[in-house]
# Entry
Amino acid sequence: MNSRSRRPSTYEVLREHGFDRRSFLKYCTVTAAAMGLDASMVPKVVEAMETKPRIPVIWLHGLECTCCSESFIRSSHPIAQDVVLNMISLDYDDTLQAAAGFQVEEIRKGLIQQARDGKGEYILAVEGNAPTADGGIYCTVGGDTFLNILLETAEHAKAVVAWGSCASNGCVQAARPNPTGAKPVHELIHGKPVINVPGCPPIAEVMTGVLTYILTFDRLPELDRQGRPKMYYGQRIHDKCYRRAFFDAGQFVEAWDDDGAREGWCLYKMGCRGPSTYNSCSTMKWNNGVSFPIGSGHGCIGCSENNFWDNGPFYERLSMVPLPGVESTPDQIGKTAAVVAGVGVAAHFTAFLARKAMAKGKEGESGSGEKE
Amino acid sequence: MASVVKPLDPADAAARPHRYFRRQYVWQWPIRIYHWVNAVCVTVLFSTGLYIASPILAPAGEPVQHFVMARFRQIHFVFAFLFLINFLWRIYWFWMGNNYARSGFPFFWRPQWWRDLFRQAFGYMRFHAGHIHLGHNALGGLAYTIFVIALGWAQIFTGLALYSESSPSGFWGGVVGWVIPLLGGSFQVRMWHHLFAWGFVFFAILHIYIILYDGLQYRNGLLTSMASGEKFFKDGDLEHDTWIS
Amino acid sequence: MATQRVVVDPITRIEGHLRIEVMLDEHGTITDAISSGTMWRGLELILQGRDPRDAWAFCERICGVCTTVHALASVRAVENALGIAVPENAEIIRNIMWLAQTVQDHVIHFYHLHALDWVDIVSALKADPKATSELAQKVSPSWPKSSPGYFADMAGTLTKFVQSGQLGLFQNAYWGHPAYKLPPEANLMAVCHYLEALRWQKEIIKIHTVFGGKNPHPNYLVGGMASAIDMQSDNAINMERLNMVRTLIMDAIDIVEQLYIPDLLAVAPFYLEWANYGGGLGNYLVYGDLPQNGIGDPSKFRFPRGVILNKNLAEVLPVDLADTEQVREEVAHSWYEYQSGQDALHPWEGETRPKYAGPKPPYQQLDENGKYSWLKSPRWKGNAMEVGPLARMLVGYASGAPEFKEVVEGALGILKVPATVLFSTLGRTAARGLEARLSARWLLAEYDRLIANLKAGNTATASTERWEPSTWPAECKGFGFTEAPRGALGHWVKIKDSKIDSYQIVVPSTWNASPKDGREQHGAYEAALIGTPMADPKRPVEILRTIHSFDPCLACASH
Ligand code: HEM
Ligand code: HEM
Ligand code: NFV
Ligand code: SF4
Ligand code: SF4
Ligand code: F3S
Ligand SMILES: [Mg+2]
# Structure
């Protein structure tokens, strides 16, 4: 990790803040004791704090399904344990943490305090999102609302990584009617770099790729308009899909398990969202390259796109027209409009002819033939 | 632009003074070219668009032997750009052309425009023949503004946004990429583009009918005017159009 | 008399947000407990008005830890409502996916969510690699990674990690707590296997990737599975794909037989006292799963259906999900209200109306006499029930199914303990291991069943006659179920005019983590905690042990 040379060690940070060597040693002894180590370990702790800090990461969990964590631990390169044990210091993550209860909250508060005092920094990773309705009572941790915890922890974070569609765009709990007022992270946190890593969940290697990129190059990845790293969300599934040849040829699966399905034809007519979805599935694939949704015969449901849940039904190519009170597809509306126009025209013309015939009749009676 | 006003047939006119039709060169060639290119583009775009939405010709055999879907898309894109250039051309001619080139503009801050709008609408509904407009009447102008200009822009922006999707950081992505998040994502853009397409059908049905009806009712040579450029009018008709500057 | 109240929030190493409050008497024994789910998303409301064919995807996102089971229950519910019978291959593929999920989930739970309740990482630093190697070879002779060199390396890595001063996930925990009983060598072995299991869990789920395109959250389909089978196509399930699945199955069997079960049996003897605690309700509910003759024929399930009441293994009672008198949910202590005014509702008539009535955050404690959880209280004929691997093992065992008898009696024999130890924290943890053992075997059996089908020329994977909504009745209702890793899962759907009219989900962790009901009967977690002595109320290892033995999933539970 070349960032080591640039990021100050704990000792350097403490020294900058007026700690002398003696107080530093005392700090190490206390730390060692807090970690349950006996005195013989103190010199090692001292050495570590002087030389090699790993950046602490606080991984918060809000309204979510924890699938992003599950995806993360599926990473093959690097494998998750390397990230967690050697690259970062995952200091807070309620899903995997050994300690529980107030011991856990103490860790988080400690990191915030250190950062507030300028004695340390941390990256905030957020999985899930925050309910904002009714004072945030739809998700609490340690008796406080997740909303408060998120805001409090973000305030001093160096950067914020929004894992998955929940954190980046709201995902399933924010789908209509969004009963808890769930909001994605970037709508709640301002004035901080927020990296959106959407996907439900994101591909494991995309997650570890984003983290290791930050650590290796000591900078945040280049983001697109929606705050997503361009390196993984720069192109559509559709433009890199191995079934694209069938799309161009016009060969489509028409029904599940039909001949086209067996030959692996394009899933466009089964509602595939590949043409509307930016993600790396069709190139990197899932679970170390084994397959991806389309590769296993089901269309993409667009799981990394904003509001993809409300773009259903997933098996229709087009969504309903999202106008209040309208329960129709664009084609239904369009055809109705065309019929209305046609009927209107026919009615008008019929009335016109009738009127003309009547006028002719009258004309004949009165004998004045000039006016039209 | 010089207005060329020629008597239709002086002899006939003298014989039947109240039918003294005159002829006016109204639609300059750029408008006429625009009109027919536009009509062809819309027809092709709508039909290829519908095919793209639900492709039905399923060729058998290997994909390398076929290019059906891609060809439809290709045609759609070629006509889309033609449509765009033609559209921009018409906008250019809005400034450069004669008065009639600007006559469709909705002058909604002018009371006369509103009066003309209602008079025309009621006229159609009660089968009245009022005076003849040489340019567009207010109702026609409004229809073109909504169903051709606004819808045209909408279709161009959504279409180009869809077109830019294969390379969001490319040229078109830079120009119209903002449309995608604005409409709530690519899927929504597609939906609106598809819905808007029907707007042209709605317009075309009414438009062609009105052209036929209006021509029949007013005897103004409307139907052929988009070919020849010339419209007929009677004495006195011109006095009504003065609010169009 | 309660003299002290201990609050643990967040409960970590679980899925979701769980809060436990216990009351201790003057000896430090738990006299009362409440379990509170502190998150709610409203999936049941979000599902209303949607296309029933999409429901599986929404439901699947209830949980990414037990990913797939909600999708499975959902497609089954919709198929049940619409009268769709899936092709046999689809049934088998779903069984294979179910089994892969269960094995993976149980292994993850044992090593990554539960182990640190029993294993002291810091003590592992003191282990002698050679002695560790001997121990490892004794408990699992054929597991390859057990040389002294391996353990020396791993100990080195661990030491370096600890000495880095950044303990990450392991800081501030309860190392050195008197409740930790393992010798350093066993601790080191367990820590090494924590990492081995972490490496392996990402392999087994590739079975989902083959059939469902990804994991977490593989794709399902109403009417079957979307992964077509064609041996002549390189773009469908073919020989290569099947070979991959088989290889993964064989690895899974190795992990379960050579790592999980040996570790379980090696650790258990140090904690036999935990056979006395954590039993709880003694009522067990199983819907059954792994159909062999269609989902409509429970008599042919590999996991038998049934209920055991009051630890009475002599009688297994029948269960009917469509009987409106059996499964019903109450909200007496839940942050919901029923407009119908009734106390308990069968899910077909179920209501989801949130009504928060707890203290204003930030708060210190909840009121056990009022409403205190985002979970409803499901009850079976009015009884609070435990669901999960222990329930399944007991119902299988009590039903006399030979494979259950074999694994249960085998383990009891090795530990030299009677069957009554099963009704406990330890029993629950052991049952999960035994279930993983059965599941790994059945993976191979289901794979063979699939191959036999293909050999007979049957390659269908989806039934499509009822795909189009125009073929559906104007109104219908159905239920779908599965045995999720954490227990009996049911989805109840009503469809009207091709749209979901109502959708109710009753989840395993809802049963287990439920608050009290209208008759003040505790849910399974609460009941299991009562009676457990705590050595140091500030360091709640005992609470974690029992709660973790259920493998809580709160995103599931409240949904
Ligand atoms: C048989 C088919 C058509 C005929 C005979 C026809 C005829 C005409 C005529 C006579 C006008 C002048 C009307 C006026 O004075 O207001 C006109 C204007 C116009 N038509 Fe058509 N039209 C046809 C089809 C279409 C189609 C398919 C479209 C496009 C959707 C279209 C778009 C327009 C537009 C935009 C104008 C205003 C022209 C301008 O001011 O630039 N027309 N058409
Ligand atoms: C009158 C004008 C137009 C009409 C009626 C029209 C109609 C349509 C329709 C119906 C579709 C199918 C939408 C769907 O169901 O997904 C479509 C697709 C599309 N149109 Fe247009 N369109 C018009 C103009 C344009 C323009 C100006 C562009 C600009 C480049 C454009 C680009 C596209 C693109 C990129 C697609 C998607 C093709 C694909 O993803 O395969 N269209 N159009
Ligand atoms: N409880 C629960 Fe689940 C399971 N197993 C599902 O139904 O965990 Ni997420
Ligand atoms: S983004 Fe999707 S996968 Fe990730 S936590 Fe949210 S619901 Fe689960
Ligand atoms: S399967 Fe989907 S992503 Fe692939 S080419 Fe077809 S429409 Fe595009
Ligand atoms: S559904 Fe999601 S996993 Fe990829 S192929 Fe589509 S973005
Ligand atoms: Mg429910």
Notes: The CA atoms of residues 79 and 222 of chain C lie 6 Å apart.
